[in-house]
């Protein structure tokens, strides 16, 4: 719904998790518009830079159809060192991700790009370190059977059953779910939006 006296706010995503996180910090988008962009990493592109580029691409894609609105785009990249893990498209891909993550620390980079009503773009990237316990074959099979991995960066969703497999994180939980809360609130305020 529109909010009198302030710019209309469009979330360039169809993610219910991002919507929940926005609501948690008092922001309600007027519209949710998924942005389809090529998410392939460029040659030599590091995970942090990839997340920032994709968040900006998504925000700009939606901004072309909604000029004069505040647009928020976001993207999450799971990385083992410099290696970007895919957004799991099938069970085999999700299994490979979980086997790689088992017993190891990795980094989740979530970027947010906000375009204000005057077309100014601001971007922030947050990073959180995450460690999986060492997973046995049955734990991997059980997680795959949950189907929570589908379309998720690195083949898992921390807010679901994978949370029981992660004994340690260093950084913001929201970053791992898909929206760093402090950075998001700061950029939306700079774009003229206030929490409700």
Tags for this model:
196 residues; alpha/beta; 7 strands
Note down, in words, how this protein is organized.
With 196 residues, this protein is α/β, with parallel strands linked by helices. It has one domain (9-190): Maf protein, CATH 3.90.950. The protein has six helices and seven strands. The chain has helices at residues 16-24, 47-63, 91-101, 137-146, 173-177, 181-190; strands at residues 9-11, 31-32, 70-80, 83-85, 105-115, 121-131, 168-170. Strands 1, 2, 3, 4, 5, 6 and 7 form a seven-stranded mixed β-sheet that branches. A hairpin with a 2-residue loop joins strand 3 and strand 4 (83-85). The longest helix is centred in the first third of the chain and has 17 residues, at 47-63. The protein is elongated. The mean pLDDT is 94.
**Which architecture per CATH?**
Alpha-Beta Complex
Percentage of residues in strands: 15-25%
- Output the CATH class name: Alpha Beta
Please provide the count of β strands: 7
The biggest beta sheet is recorded as: 7 strands, mixed
Please state the structural category: alpha/beta
Low-confidence stretches: none
Order of helices and strands: EHEHEEHEEHEHH
User: Can you tell me the CATH topology?
Assistant: Maf protein
Number of DSSP helical runs: 6
Average pLDDT level: 94
Q: How many distinct folded domains?
A: 1
Roughly what percent helix?
25-40%
User: Over the alpha carbons, how many angstroms does the gyration radius reach?
Assistant: 17 Å
Distance separating the two termini? 13 Å
Shape type? elongated
